[in-house]
Specification:
The complex is a heterodimer of chains A (114) and B (111). Chain A is mainly β. Chain A has no helices and twelve strands. In chain A, strands 2, 5, 6, 10, 11 and 12 form a six-stranded mixed sheet that branches. Chain A has a four-stranded antiparallel sheet with strand order 3-9-8-7, with no helix packed on it. Chain B has strands at 5-7, 10-13, 19-24, 31-38, 42-50, 53-56, 65-71, 74-79, 88-96, 99-102, 106-110. The chains are: A mainly beta (114), B mainly beta (111). The A-B interface holds A 32, 34, 36, 42-46, 49, 51, 90, 92, 94, 96, 100-102, 104, 106-107 and B 31, 33, 42-43, 45, 48, 50, 55-56, 91, 93, 95, 98-105.
């Protein structure tokens, strides 16, 4: 079955530390990939997406993600986190054909200490 | 565009009452999704529509839940009768070209 794994459930970092959140998916075909962010008490917002082309994609607020097809991974990175990055981060995958449904990971809660 | 609009933002009701959540998708989007989010179960897809037609309702927890999309600009999620375990945040999302945009959610508390 298709699935998305986010191995880090909780991450605590100090401000200015570098961030990498892992995302792996299981699906043999072509996919579109997404990272969403949910700030406390708010809705999910699109952070970045990958459809095709350059596997290194840049999103809002200094985030980037790299798609490594051979590893079925789409890890999220930020070189220097800020207190305002405290949020929950969700990775999502959708096959490019046959469905409109995202497969979401379970989310990673990031807490940035000021 | 104002984005995906959900109403009400908060709903407090008593067990056994009927609850109706509403969603207005972004104009031009052809798919609409209802999600439920709780601390225990995380984010769950309940049902989604494409071109106003329900495509997959396998996430609807039981017959007490129903959803409709009578036209491209409106959808409802109804719970009848409501139970305390239905307390959650319910999100609606609409999509075009595989990108989903979420509404602000309805926080439902069933007492």
């Amino acid at each position: 079955a298709q699935s998305v794994s986010q191995h880090n459930h909780h991450v605590i970092l100090s401000e200015a530390a570098s961030l990498e959140l892992g995302c792996n998916y299981s699906y043999g075909g072509t996919v579109n990939l997404f990272w969403y962010v949910q700030y406390p008490g708010q809705h999910l917002q699109l952070l970045l997406k990958y459809f095709s082309g350059d596997p290194l994609v840049k999103g809002i607020k200094g985030f980037e993600a790299e798609f490594i097809k051979s590893k079925f991974s789409f890890n999220l990175r930020k070189p220097s986190v800020q207190w305002s990055d405290t949020a929950e981060y969700f990775c999502a995958v959708i096959p490019t054909s046959g469905t409109y449904k995202y497969i979401f990971g379970t989310g990673t809660r990031l807490k940035v200490l000021a | 565009d104002a984005g995906v609009i959900q109403s009400p933002r908060h709903e407090v009701t008593e067990m056994g009452q009927e609850v109706t959540l509403r969603c207005k998708p972004i104009s031009g989007h052809n798919s609409l999704f209802w999600y439920r989010q709780t601390m225990m179960r995380g984010l769950e897809l309940l049902i989604y529509f494409n071109n106003n037609v329900p495509i997959d309702d396998s996430g609807m927890p039981e017959d007490r839940f129903s959803a409709k999309m009578p036209n491209a600009s409106f959808s409802t999620l109804k719970i009848q009768p409501s139970e305390p375990r239905d307390s959650a945040v319910y999100f609606c999302a609409s999509s075009f070209s595989n990108i989903q945009y979420f509404g602000a959610g309805t926080r439902l508390s069933v007492l």
